[in-house]
Amino acid sequence: MIEITQRHQNIIGSKAAISALETKDHARLLIISDSHENYPVFEKIVRRYGAKCDAVVFCGDGICDISRLLYAAQTDSKLMECVPPVIAAVKGNCDPSSYPLDSASLYFSELVELKVNGQIIMISHGHNQSVDFGLETFGLEMQVSESRIGFYGHTHIAREDNINGYKMVNPGSCARPRGGQPASFAIATVEKTFTDIAFIRMKIESDGSTSFNLWNPI
Q1: What element of type H or E holds 20?
Q2: Under 8 Å CB-to-CB from 30, ≥6 apart: which residues?
Q3: Beta strands 195-204 and 210-215: pairing type?
Q4: Measured between alpha carbons, how far is 191 from 188 in angstroms, rounded to an integer?
Q5: Which terminus of the chain has a smaller tally of CB atoms within 10 A, N or C?
Q6: Which tens digit of pLDDT belongs to each residue from 10-21?
């Protein structure tokens, strides 16, 4: 069960859960981006995959959905069981810096460095690094943060780039995909010596049912 407390860099979770993630072998991260207030889709993903992951990474544009998830989970025990113990989220260009939750507010920055399994993972929405036009600036900021893995959103296009030993991953948009892609997200398995990325596409049928399938964006 997640503790709804914000810590260093506005990461949500208990001190114990955040510390455990820093050294946990075989850590799994649920990476979601650009939900744009389509909360039902966001919740479907968490219900399906959250319980098997150690953290949610949200790459911006839809931070209200983080707040709605945590609010709903307080009165829905089954949903609470699906929420990973750590949430690392950044604000996108369409997000405010804070969003209300009960009588308090959640706060979000534009850049987060999440420590996982002995590695530093840089998380940003990507608009400040102009990812629409290339990943050079994003890569330079990764070097400054001494991270070899970076997650970003903004383009709504799923892709994985490995450039000079730096892995840069966009999970795509779970609500408003572009470039002919399906709605998607990703799961990262962080090992000591490598990180594996699995992209998952979604298809919502007319009856409201949702199918999830592995796929390889090109």
Answers
A1: helix 15-23
A2: 45, 46, 49, 50, 53, 55, 56, 57, 84, 185, 187
A3: antiparallel
A4: 9
A5: C
A6: 999 999 999 999
